[in-house]
Amino acid sequence: MRIGNLDGRLVIIDATETRALDVATASGGRFGPDPQSVFERWTDFAGWAASADVVAGEEFDPIRLGPPVPRPPQVFGIGPNYRDHAQEAELDLPAEPMVFTKFPSSVTGPFAEVRLPSDRVDYEVELVVVIGKKGHAIPVERAWDHVAGLTVGQDVSERAVQFRDKPAQFSLGKSYPGFAPIGPALVTPDELPDRDRLQIGCRTGEETLQQGTTADMVFPVAELVARLSSVVTLLPGDVVFTGTPAGVGSVRSPRRYLSRGEVVESTIEGVGRIRTTFV
């Protein structure tokens, strides 16, 4: 199942991503139109949606899609969580996940224009996990039961703010307006042949910026959910940016930051593609 935010309304999207079924209309008001509200009733909704007639939906232009999770209660970011990225940054593999937040006001949609506040803005394509069931101290073997779905994200980072002093300001440097583009849809894990091994990457024009696999994660999705919930109560609609593979600009030689006018296309196998224009 793929669910989305079309013009601010909750929809189910077909496999070709060309038709969308309005949930409030199709369910006769059983579920409301607000894309964020569905996570509070995720189990009930998923049961209904499994038999919904998506083919009866309208054709749509993907440019109309907004963030599938427009107002997450909590947004978690994970520091170096890919082995190849830790290696390129000359960092030891972490014994525990390094956790920060991207403030929810930074969330934007899959085809957004994002203003560059400086000439030191970096890109980080990431698999984004969305929580569908509240939980605290979730055992790792039950962690996927608490996941509503997956989407594509960019953890855009202003490195001058992030590293201008000690300790580093990860959360502020990663929370300018539009610095958390996500989408195009939320894909339930059953849609994927191997939810823990997905190709992930981003490019601008003909230039490949990052290319990797989620199988390279130090802490896979289930372990991240379990470890986060050992401290924090995870809430329906929470968003977890799970880390990025090698290729980020700030550790290249020479460094490679984003320029005005660049369009970054981020993709994850089986999940989708987003396009972010930097202005």
Automatic annotation (TrEMBL):
Q: Which Pfam families match?
A: FAA_hydrolase (PF01557)
InterPro entries per the record? FAH (IPR051121), Fumarylacetoacetase-like_C (IPR011234), Fumarylacetoacetase_C_sf (IPR036663)
Q: Which GO terms describe its molecular function?
A: hydrolase activity
Q: Where is the Fumarylacetoacetase-like C-terminal domain?
A: 75-278
Top-level division of the source organism's lineage: Bacteria
Could you list this entry's UniProt keywords, alphabetically sorted: Hydrolase, Metal-binding
What's this protein's family per the entry? Answer: Belongs to the FAH family.
Q: What is this protein called?
A: Fumarylacetoacetate hydrolase
Q: To which species is this protein native?
A: Mobilicoccus caccae
